[in-house]
């Protein structure tokens, strides 16, 4: 992707390269020129995700060739066509970076059509979370109909998406959240069982429910031992983050007894072909659920693009239920 067409656009930069939410500032930068196989999208809305915060803090650099600008998911209209897309098409897309801006260059294979009935704000909250949940819960975790998924952080963007996707696939969901209000909201979002992790031991609740087949874990730390305890024979624990601690003790014989699998993955560093493969699978499996209204993560709050610092502060505050989205139009 080149940046030499002479036109500029509004985008968000991190003043000083890293810092608190207040370091997010509005700047004018060159408008991207799409390279071979890329479309140019006029961004109407951009999802805000926890990896954006980690990048802002200096701990999650973009992959080689991706823009330095934050932003991993967008929705908007195609301005310059490529692949199957034509100018004017409404798309949402997964990015390696560059979403907090008025325009984004996107690998045409990483864009998906916005389903009928969804607006740009709703669509912008789909790609990063849906791709992450599909790759980790369904591919790495192998969740199948009739099995039980445990998901932590039930009211986060990932959490609400995992609940809805697992239920759409015919699985049972045990969700954990910190606080009675968030646990109650998890039930509203479709979880079969919700645990206030500040008041009850989720492992004991899960065992009383018959155990779990798959755990989606973004906590790590002391959660791991309890997850292993709650796991059914042949169960799978899938890590996507470690907000509670990046190292855990692994009791080898317990793992052997349970025939358990412990795995994990990141989405952003995957190569373009792998993301294209994943996009095709998401469109095949998940998009019908989205079109039917069964996967529709709630949007907790919207902010103007120029209010990105407020959006980050809101996400870091932890009171949100669902997605936080920037409005770029």
Structure description:
The chain has 329 residues and is of the alpha/beta class. The chain has 11 helices and 15 strands. The strands form 3 sheets. Strands 3, 4, 5, 6, 7, 14 and 15 form a 7-stranded mixed β-sheet that branches. The longest helix is centred in the middle third of the chain and has 14 residues, at 127-140. The model has no long low-confidence stretch (mean pLDDT 95).
Descriptive labels:
329 residues, 15 strands, alpha/beta, 11 helices
Briefly characterize the structure.
With 329 residues, the chain is α/β, with parallel strands linked by helices. The protein is built from eleven helices and 15 strands. The chain has helices spanning 50-56, 120-124, 127-140, 157-168, 180-188, 202-208, 223-230, 252-258, 272-285, 287-291, 308-317, and strands at 8-14, 24-30, 38-48, 73-80, 90-94, 103-107, 111-113, 148-151, 172-177, 193-196, 212-217, 231-239, 261-264, 299-304, 323-327.
Shape: globular
The first-to-last residue Cα distance is: 23 Å
Major sheet size, sense and barrel closure: 7 strands, mixed
Discrete helix count = 11
Number of strands: 15
Mean pLDDT: 95
* Helix-strand makeup class: alpha/beta
How much of the sequence is in beta strands? Answer: 25-35%
Helix content: 25-40%
Topology diagram in text:
Elements: E1 8-14, E2 24-30, E3 38-48, H1 50-56, E4 73-80, E5 90-94, E6 103-107, E7 111-113, H2 120-124, H3 127-140, E8 148-151, H4 157-168, E9 172-177, H5 180-188, E10 193-196, H6 202-208, E11 212-217, H7 223-230, E12 231-239, H8 252-258, E13 261-264, H9 272-285, H10 287-291, E14 299-304, H11 308-317, E15 323-327
Parallel strand pairs: 8-9, 8-11, 9-10, 11-12, 12-13, 14-15
Antiparallel strand pairs: 1-2, 3-4, 3-6, 3-15, 4-5, 5-7
Helix pairs in contact: 3-4, 6-7
């Amino acid at each position: 992707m080149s940046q030499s067409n002479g036109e500029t656009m509004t985008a968000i930069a991190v003043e000083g390269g890293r810092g608190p939410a207040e370091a997010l500032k509005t700047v004018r930068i060159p408008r991207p020129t799409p390279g071979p196989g890329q479309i140019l999208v006029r961004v109407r809305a951009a999802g805000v995700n926890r990896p954006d915060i980690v990048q802002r803090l200096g701990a999650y650099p973009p992959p080689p060739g991706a823009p330095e600008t934050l932003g991993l998911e967008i929705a908007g209209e195609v301005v310059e066509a490529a692949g199957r897309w034509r100018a004017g098409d409404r798309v949402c897309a997964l990015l390696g970076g560059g979403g907090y801006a008025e325009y984004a260059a996107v690998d045409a294979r990483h864009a998906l059509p916005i389903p009928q009935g969804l607006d740009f704000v709703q669509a912008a909250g789909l790609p990063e979370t849906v791709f992450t949940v599909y790759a980790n819960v369904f591919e790495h975790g192998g969740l199948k109909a009739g099995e039980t998924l445990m998901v932590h952080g039930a009211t986060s963007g990932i959490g609400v998406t995992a609940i809805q996707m697992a239920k759409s696939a015919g699985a049972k969901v045990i969700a954990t959240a910190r606080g009675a209000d968030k646990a109650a909201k998890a039930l509203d979002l479709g979880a079969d069982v919700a645990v206030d992790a500040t008041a009850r031991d989720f492992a004991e609740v899960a065992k009383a429910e018959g155990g779990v087949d798959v755990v989606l874990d973004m906590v790590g730390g002391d959660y791991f031992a309890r997850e292993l305890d709650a796991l059914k024979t042949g169960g799978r624990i899938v890590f996507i983050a470690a907000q509670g601690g990046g190292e855990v003790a692994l009791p080898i014989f317990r793992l052997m007894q349970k025939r358990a699998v412990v795995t994990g993955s990141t989405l952003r560093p995957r190569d373009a072909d792998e993301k294209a493969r994943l996009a095709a699978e998401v469109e095949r499996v998940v998009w019908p659920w989205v079109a039917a209204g069964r996967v529709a993560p709630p949007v907790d709050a919207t902010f103007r693009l120029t209010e990105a610092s407020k959006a980050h502060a809101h996400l870091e505050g932890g009171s949100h239920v669902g997605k936080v989205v920037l409005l770029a139009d």
